[in-house]
Amino acid sequence: MIPAALGALTGPQLLASPTFWAVVVGAAGLWLLIPGRLPHGKVLGSALVAVAGGLFAFDLPLLGDWGRQGVFWLLAAVTLGGATATIASQSPLYSAIWFALSLLGTAGLFLFQGAQFLGVATIVVYAGAIVVTFLFVIMLAQPQGNAPYDRMSWGGLPKLMGVATAGALVGILMFMLQGLSDEARPPALSAAVAQPSVRGAGPDQPGGVLDDKHVANLGRVLFSQHLISVEVAGTLLLVALVGAVAIAIRGRPKLAGRTEEALR
Amino acid sequence: MSELSLLINCLAVGGGLVALGLLGFLVRRNMIVMFLCAEMMLQGISLSLVGWGRFHNDWGGQMLVIFIITVAACEAAIALALILMLAQRAGKLDSAAWQDLREQGQPAFVDREVPEERRHDPIWPHLTPAGIEPPVDPQTLLNRPRV
Q1: Nearest chain B Cα distance for residue A11, angstroms
Q2: Is A134 left (phi over 0), alpha (psi -120 to 50) or beta?
Q3: Which pTM value belongs to this model?
Q4: Distance from CA of residue A26 to its chain's centroid?
Q5: Segment B66-116, tens digit of pLDDT
Q6: What pLDDT is recorded for position A179?
């Protein structure tokens, strides 16, 4: 159904579509932004990526309310801009900090969609714990500044192929989304959303995803329907902890010798 | 607010995050940046899962994102231990330092024309020592050889 909508796209239609040009311009901008031999690519690349973001936003359906729309665009710009700067920064330290900013944007988008617990959990777990651990590891492993392998990527051809792959992925996904917007919702789906008896309740009703008692409902579903998954996830955390310690100890042959010396 | 347009917007942002993470994973050579890009792809997936969950009024999307966060934390612990070990052995974070693992018959990757460090790259200041050097306790030096 949706791939058919993608296949029915003709050449002139493709050339008239802002999304197509957004993909092309964005791919060119990213090609300039990624660290490489070009000395003056940053400003032009940033401008091209910003233009591509504007073209994407132009082709997407509006949310209706301009206040909501503005907040959404701001959050999306923070998220995608932070992500772009993450892959464009030469220093891994700056990459990690830009990634933290991108995570804050993602958390904002979670809150925007009414997923309050996930927004806060993303900030606490990702930006608070994982990114800080990354910073520790960067400080431990690479105390000096920009290494040569950070100043260049794999080379010209792999960079071009990577940009083309990412552009093709985004283009196909966006055209599939347009197919989704052109036709009405599938009848089974719209009936399921419209009839409260099928899905239990509407989003605003008790038990729905937009209910006021958000965390209470989330915990009810998590600890009733997904209880075994919670147990398995806890076991996984324990196993990962043991594994990380084992890897860190096994990786140092010197330490074992030192211990033996000390025991002698 | 139309639920369908919210879904489409969120899916577009999620798709953009996945593509940027894929691109970074493909082109960057620093192992830590590659791992950050993998986490970025997980963020894009999480965003689309929450969007679908809201569209269908189903808690399943948010449940899956909770488990994604759990698995990402495990993954970060193990991967950072691995990266630290590899960096200690190779002396650098370059993934090309481990290209001995490549398949037989593949040509080796050789760096050509490494660009110079740019002028506007930050050059960190060195603090000049000032004042009188305090007397050093030899016992302290023995216990903390790196100070």
Answers
A1: 23
A2: alpha
A3: 0.82
A4: 17
A5: 999 999 999 999 999 998 888 888 878 888 888 888 888 888 888 776 666
A6: 67
* The token pair that represents B126 in the structure block: 């060195």
Identify all chain A residues contacting B17, using CB atoms and an 8 Å cutoff: 79-80, 83, 102, 106
Task: Report pLDDT digits (tens) over A247-263.
Answer: 888 766 555 555 565 55
Q: What is the DSSP letter of A153?
A: -
Q: Which helix (H) or strand (E) holds A236?
A: helix A227-250
For chain B, helix (H) and strand (E) counts, in that order, are 4, 0
A213-A214-A215-A217 Cα dihedral, nearest 10 degrees:
80
Digit-coded pLDDT (tens) for B122-141: 666 777 878 888 787 777 76
B5 CA to chain A: closest CA distance, Å? Answer: 6
CB atoms B13 and A109 under 8 Å: yes
CA separation for the pair A18, A29 (Å, rounded): 16
Check residue B30 and report its DSSP letter: B
- Please provide the size of chain A in residues: 264
In chain A, the N- to C-terminal Cα span, in Å, equals: 74
A73: its two tokens? 């665009």
Tokens 């966006």 identify what position? A174
For the record, the structure tokens of A90 come out as 């030469």
Q: How far is A10 from chain B (nearest CA, A)?
A: 22
Note whether ipTM > 0.90 here: no
- Please report the number of interchain residue pairs, chain A to chain B, with beta-carbon separation below 8 angstroms: 298
Given its phi and psi angles, is residue B107 left (phi above 0), alpha (psi -120 to 50 degrees) or beta? beta
Residue entry with tokens 């958000």: A214
In the numeric block, which tokens belong to residue A57? Answer: 């936003």
Is B87 an interface residue toward A (CB < 8 Å)? yes
